[in-house]
From TrEMBL:
<dbReference type="GO" id="GO:0008836">
    <property type="term" value="F:diaminopimelate decarboxylase activity"/>
</dbReference>
<dbReference type="InterPro" id="IPR005730">
    <property type="entry name" value="Nsp_de-COase"/>
</dbReference>
<dbReference type="GO" id="GO:0045312">
    <property type="term" value="P:nor-spermidine biosynthetic process"/>
</dbReference>
<feature type="binding site">
    <location>
        <position position="280"/>
    </location>
    <ligand>
        <name>substrate</name>
    </ligand>
</feature>
<dbReference type="InterPro" id="IPR022643">
    <property type="entry name" value="De-COase2_C"/>
</dbReference>
<keyword id="KW-0456">Lyase</keyword>
<feature type="domain" description="Orn/DAP/Arg decarboxylase 2 C-terminal">
    <location>
        <begin position="151"/>
        <end position="335"/>
    </location>
</feature>
<feature type="binding site">
    <location>
        <position position="244"/>
    </location>
    <ligand>
        <name>substrate</name>
    </ligand>
</feature>
<keyword id="KW-0745">Spermidine biosynthesis</keyword>
<comment type="similarity">
    <text>Belongs to the Orn/Lys/Arg decarboxylase class-II family. NspC subfamily.</text>
</comment>
<dbReference type="InterPro" id="IPR009006">
    <property type="entry name" value="Ala_racemase/Decarboxylase_C"/>
</dbReference>
<dbReference type="GO" id="GO:0008295">
    <property type="term" value="P:spermidine biosynthetic process"/>
</dbReference>
<dbReference type="GO" id="GO:0009089">
    <property type="term" value="P:lysine biosynthetic process via diaminopimelate"/>
</dbReference>
<dbReference type="Pfam" id="PF00278">
    <property type="entry name" value="Orn_DAP_Arg_deC"/>
</dbReference>
<keyword id="KW-0210">Decarboxylase</keyword>
<keyword id="KW-0663">Pyridoxal phosphate</keyword>
<dbReference type="InterPro" id="IPR029066">
    <property type="entry name" value="PLP-binding_barrel"/>
</dbReference>
Length: 380
């Protein structure tokens, strides 16, 4: 690296991103499924010229993501699709969403009946579908389980209203989180048992996200087999819409040690924040890997890493190193590209990390730096 970049920054490595996209494209080609990017998990749109060499569009969670998908992904190519799903749409957004979406997915029959005529008037070519809750999931964490107890996401069999059938061309489900293909098999079995009688009037079935396709050990061949069999059995198109699997292990969050304090143990204060910049480490929670480190006590020098905010619980975890850390040292958190900058906040007025791309020719492109105005402009 020739140029010094101020920390903190996220650095997405385009060659790693391409490697993920190659795997996803292999699934598309072998299975016949279409794969679209869930913007919710990864929305570094400067990489979209690369992403759209492979994926067939984006899925968005509402008006703003749909606008981004239309502007930066599916602008000039009629073969690239914008899908939109919201738990509930609002009167003031629905017309624009209808205009810019190729697919619109409703969460409940209520919402579908409320908006279907309006949507079709605005965009006669739009495909409408209903999100189903298959009521089967082995999602490892409640906070990420769309089929958990009292879930508001998707329509259960008991709430399915057959009058939706005259309006919809597809059914969606999203029931997985970071899971292998066995979990998909279980969900599909439940979904088919309840809903397969409706499949013959459908053009497509969307299997949602949460497929950990690009993680080592994922059974890609089995996924391909399942999709092929499903398509053959029911004569429908199949979509997958992963977010995490696109951004998985494609880059890092680079930060610096600002100070080291002692209170029962050694504590390093970093110029980043678990709360503001690595939110899933607190929400899930999980311990992000740090390059060159071991578990607490594994190597000679152990530190607790804390963020530069006033939240006591703004802690990344405990890490050990062969050599003592010094103020100014660089700390690199691994795998910090998905579900990080899409969720960031300016809590405490802390500066947002810059966004950097490591291009395939190994040059660094600082695509975005943030400052005081980004904090101020969201307040008034
Ligand atoms: C979050 C979400 C996705 C993407 O999930 P990943 O776990 O990032 O693959 C896809 N579809 C829907 C409806 C979602 O809510």
């Amino acid at each position: 690296m020739s140029k010094k970049i101020n920390t903190p920054y996220y650095m997405c490595d385009e060659s790693l991103l391409r490697a993920n996209l190659e795997i996803l494209d292999y699934v598309q080609k072998e299975s016949g499924a279409k794969i679209i990017l869930a913007l919710k998990g990864f929305a570094m749109w400067s990489t979209f010229p690369l992403v759209k060499q492979y994926l067939k569009g984006c899925t968005s969670s509402g008006l703003h993501e749909a606008l981004l998908a239309r502007e930066e992904f599916a602008k000039d190519d009629p073969n690239l699709e914008v899908h939109t799903y919201s738990p509930a749409y609002k009167d003031e957004d629905i017309d624009q969403i209808a205009e810019i979406s190729d697919h619109i997915v409703f969460n409940s029959p209520n919402q579908l009946f409320k908006y279907c005529d309006r949507v079709k008037n605005i965009n006669p070519n739009i495909s409408m579908s209903l999100r189903i809750n298959p009521e089967q999931s082995s999602s490892p964490k409640d906070i990420y389980n769309p089929c958990g107890l009292y879930s508001r996401l998707g329509t259960t069999f008991a709430n399915f209203d057959e009058r939706v059938l005259e309006h919809i061309k597809g059914l969606n489900f999203h029931a997985l989180c970071e899971q292998n293909v066995d979990a998909l098999e279980d969900v599909l079995a439940a979904f088919e048992t309840k809903f397969s009688k409706y499949f013959k009037s459908m053009k497509y079935i969307n299997f949602g996200g949460g497929h950990h396709i690009t993680k080592k050990g994922y059974d890609v061949e089995k996924l391909i087999r399942i999709i092929k069999e499903f398509r053959a059995k029911y004569g429908v198109d199949v979509y997958l819409e992963p977010g995490e699997a696109v951004g998985w292990e494609t880059g890092v969050l680079v930060s610096s040690v600002l100070d080291i304090v002692h209170n029962g143990m050694d504590i390093a204060i970093l110029d980043t924040s678990a709360e503001a910049h690595m939110p899933d480490t607190l929400a899930m929670p999980y311990r992000a890997m740090v390059r060159g480190s071991g578990e607490a006590g594994e190597k000679k020098h152990t530190y607790r890493f804390g963020g530069n905010t006033c939240l006591a619980g703004d802690i990344m975890g405990d890490y050990s190193f062969d050599e003592p850390l010094k103020v100014g040292d660089t700390v690199i958190f691994e795998d910090q590209i998905h579900y990080t900058f899409v969720k960031n906040t300016t809590f405490n007025g802390i500066k947002l990390p810059s966004l950097v791309i490591l291009k395939e020719d190994k040059t660094l492109d600082i695509i975005k730096e943030f400052g005081y105005q980004d904090y101020k402009n969201r307040l008034s």
